[in-house]
Design brief:
Keywords: Membrane, Transmembrane, Transmembrane helix. The chain has 15 helices and four strands. By secondary structure, the chain is mainly alpha-helical. Helix 11 (250-277) runs antiparallel to helix 13 (317-337).
């Protein structure tokens, strides 16, 4: 379990020897440097690959340059010193990215109707071949092979998405395809042990109920047409991940914990939506839907929506705000007791967002609400402090 500790204070208290504190600090610094190097390296490879493809803007030129980069990378790995392996790996990845990325762009641009049918199996073949070599232990460089697997997976998933758009596939098959995306991304992220990739699985998983984001001029938007059902979906994910994290090795548990934290973040964003507008549960799934496309006119759609709302489960915004506050308090206390730092930090962050939002949206002119909330917080803090003392005194 990763913890945050003040090594200087631990040395002063006699808990650690100075040499032990120095070793902890050195290892921590090494981890940060590795993260920085990998981030810069990945950015450079992606930028160089995209730059080559769009600068050359010719399928033959991109293919030739990609092959040359592959050959150059292999020569560096075969003949170069250990200190220069990073350049060899980078050249191989740029070459592979140019070949696969260039081919994909050429297919989409010139052969749109065939692109999905070619990219889906081609990407699957590259992914499966890479996974087989990874599982068989035939690793020349884990970083290179992992990156090639991700390229193949990206090509495969983009190919499927092209087919979905081409054939206008809707629910429920569309929802199952999004679930497949999430499982595929999470599985590959776990296999190559890159939590950033695992974390990306939350995007298609949340989109199963149309939750997502949008951007327009100077505004980033989060939307959730079904906040309550999405929260239930995320609670199921969080519960499964936390249960699995307790049963598996630390290497696997790290991936489950990152998904749990991201599920908690999405659930809180949905709760923010519900606390502002409330929720008519199921309106966009088994109700009349978000749009009036299936109705002869707007009046028919509005009548169907009003009829559905009259008999549907409706949660008002005020009830949502109160329930969200109670759940946040419970999660903060529980995560603090169980050293779940990710959930703890996310809980505190959303508690601040919740308080700030409600201060302006609901209680701007109601000072009594601040009085009651403040007075209630004091005994709550005292109770948590006393509970922690008792649990420290009686760990069993």
């Amino acid at each position: 379990m990763h913890v945050v500790a003040d090594t200087t204070a631990l040395v002063e208290d006699g808990v650690l020897a100075p040499e032990q504190a120095l070793e902890i600090e050195t290892r921590s610094r090494d981890v940060m440097i590795k993260l920085a190097v990998n981030a810069i390296l990945c950015f450079g490879i992606i930028a160089a690959t995209a730059g080559f493809i769009f600068w050359l803007a010719n399928a033959v030129a991109v293919s030739i340059t990609g092959v040359l980069m592959l050959v150059l990378g292999l020569l560096i790995l075969a003949k170069g010193a250990e200190a220069y392996r990073m350049f060899g790996n980078s050249a191989i990845l740029i070459g592979a990215g140019m070949l696969m990325g260039g081919a994909s762009i050429e297919l989409v641009d010139k052969y749109e109707q065939l692109a999905g049918w070619i990219m889906t199996p081609a990407g699957a073949f590259v992914t499966i071949l890479g996974v087989w070599r990874w599982r068989s232990g035939a690793l020349s460089a884990a970083f290179v092979l992992g990156a090639v697997i991700l390229m193949g997976l990206s090509m495969h998933l983009i190919g499927i998405e092209l087919l979905v758009m081409q054939h206008q596939i809707g629910s429920p098959l569309r929802n199952l395809i999004l679930l497949y995306y999430a499982i595929a991304v999470a599985t590959i992220g776990w296999m190559i042990d890159v939590r950033l990739v695992t974390a990306l699985a939350i995007v298609p998983f949340a989109q199963m109920l149309e939750t997502g984001t949008a951007y327009f001029h100077a505004a980033y938007v989060f939307y959730s047409p079904e906040p309550t059902l999405t929260i239930v979906q995320m609670i199921a994910l969080i519960t499964a991940c936390l249960w699995g994290a307790r049963k598996t090795a630390d290497r696997d548990a790290r991936h489950l914990r990152i998904l749990a934290v991201l599920g908690f973040i999405v659930a809180n964003l949905c709760a923010l939506v519900g606390s502002l507008w409330g929720d008519v549960v199921g309106e966009t799934i088994w109700g009349p839907g978000r749009y009036s496309d299936g109705y002869p006119d707007w009046e028919s759609y509005r009548a169907a929506r009003e009829a559905f709302r009259d008999q549907a489960l409706t949660i008002p915004d005020g009830a949502y705000a109160i329930l969200w506050a109670v759940v946040l308090a419970a999660v903060i206390i529980w995560s603090a007791r169980h050293s779940q730092r990710g959930l703890f930090n996310a809980g505190l962050t959303f508690a601040a967002i919740h308080g700030y939002t409600q201060m302006f949206e609901s209680f701007a002119d109601r000072p009594l609400a601040y009085l009651l909330g403040g007075l209630a917080a004091i005994p709550l803090a005292w109770g948590v402090w006393r509970l922690n003392q008792r649990m420290r005194a009686h760990p069993s």
